[in-house]
Amino acid sequence: MQLRYSFRLEPTSFQQRMLARTFGCARVVFNDALTLRRVAYAAKEPWIGTGELSKAVLTQGKKREERTWLGEVSSVVLQQSLRDLESAYRAFFGSRSGKRKGPPVGAPAFKSRKDRRQSVRFTANARWKITETGRLTLPKIGAVKVRWSRTLPIVPSSVTVIKDTAGRYFASFVIETDPDTDTTRWPVEDAAGYEVGLDMGLTHFVVLDNGEKIASPRFLRRAEKKLKRLQRRHARKQKGSMNKEKARKALARQHTKVADARRHFLPQALGFARAGETPSELSTRLIRDNQAVYAETLNVKGMARGRLAKAVHDAGWSSFLTMLEYKAARYGRVFQRVGRSFPSSQRCSVCHRIDGPKPLNVRTWACPGCGTVHDRDTNAADNTLQEGRRLHTQNLKVAEGHHGDPKRLRSDGKTRDVKVPA
After folding, report:
1. SS3 for 194?
2. Is 80 exceeded by the pLDDT of residue 309?
3. CB within 8 A of 272, min separation 6: which ones?
4. 400 is an active site residue
5. Which pairing describes strands 129-130 and 118-122: parallel, antiparallel, or unpaired?
6. C-alpha to C-alpha distance for 353 and 373, rounded to whole angstroms
7. How far apart are CA 174 and CA 169, in angstroms?
8. N or C: which end of the chain has fewer CB within 10 A?
9. Is 382 part of the annotated catalytic residue set?
10. For 110-158, where are the E strands, in sequence order?
């Protein structure tokens, strides 16, 4: 499994100028190569291969007077920019042909020098290295100071230098983990027999089937007043002026603070059931202590179209569930999503009677069938646990060749006849 490690960089003023030059050269190479391919396509000429593209844009391009400054930066970065263009075209063609999964991908577009987020990648051929003093040495840029927050498990083969919208610099490393080491870190036997169901919400970030509730931090709501003031200040500045750029950076810094707080879930802002526990630590605890984790599939796009759109985006459910999913895959646990059509809030977790939809202000209700009084969120988490367990058992039977009941393939409590391959 591949994991990404990001660390803050503190380049000097000279190194910032060299990084800006590197970003610009990579952008120009990308745009020149894209122009050649678009011109060839418009003229109905043969497809220009990567080798021909490299000769035309880099080898011959550096000889032209208007492109001589391409030799002032690492050639590996420029070659990687051409590879990025190739990857963009592969994704576009794969999306058009249906071979690529996920949302549709458009054709590659030109990069603008006004883009606030920029990045370049240094591969092993660039001969970058991490010095004994902990600095990151980059070709034609120098030794850049790094804020190391943790130790890299292995030496990575490449590094991506990123400048975000707030003007901060980061070094991003992709590490390939060792599956044998991951399985021995948290043995599956230690969590055998333990399962947990999750219900995501707005009042509470997540509710467990055992009744544990974790409050939602609402970072954007708390920063709204300052964001509004900075947005008004930015709107008043004259377009193209230095004051406009200063106001933009101040606004971007505030947005990055909100995003970082949501990503790391600062412990002092939470009020989790366990003191000082961040969502990353929460996901770690759920994966470490349980053999299986079951969660509902959320229609975030649909929910974000309603009156609760801001609260839905502020919750950040997707990143938390993604965190759970990759940790489960890494440490040999089960992560099962329950279909979004499953009526977890409408069904009694005791007698399984479906009582119909309920408005959001109804937090407790009594089942007309068995008389059990339910907490809305805890009951939904319990239903998610039961349905997730059923779906996982069904998947195991299908994988083993025992398809079981072909009518129980829907997760909304209904049945339908389907043809199951032999």
Report:
1. coil
2. no
3. 214, 215, 278, 282
4. no
5. unpaired
6. 13
7. 17
8. C
9. no
10. 118-122, 129-130, 136-138, 142-147
Rg (CA), the chain: 26
Report the pLDDT value the prediction gives residue 290, as an integer from 0 to 100: 84
N- to C-terminal Cα separation, the chain: 32
Q: For the residues 371-385, what does the mean pLDDT come to?
A: 88
Counted residue by residue, the chain has a size of 422
Residue 74: what pLDDT?
A: 93
Cα separation, 180 vs 177, in Å, equals 9
Strand, coil or helix: 304:
coil
Cα atoms in the 13 Å half-sphere on the side-chain side of 244:
7
| Active-site pick, 32, 199, 209, 325 | 199
- Percent of the chain at pLDDT > 70 equals 89
Report the distance separating Cα 331 and Cα 336, nearest Å.
Answer: 15
**pTM of the predicted structure, to 2 decimals:** 0.76
Mean model confidence pLDDT for the chain: 83
Read off the amino acid at residue 43: A
Q: Among 195, 377, 382, 387, which one carries the catalytic annotation? A: 377
CB atoms within 10 A of CB 66: 7
* 369 close to 362: Cβ distance less than 8 angstroms: no
Say if residues 239 and 293 touch (Cβ distance below 8 Å): no
Q: How far apart are CA 292 and CA 390, in angstroms?
A: 12
Residue 287 has pLDDT above 90, yes or no: no
Return the residue matching tokens 């850049």: 144
Name the catalytic one among 84, 195, 209, 296. 296
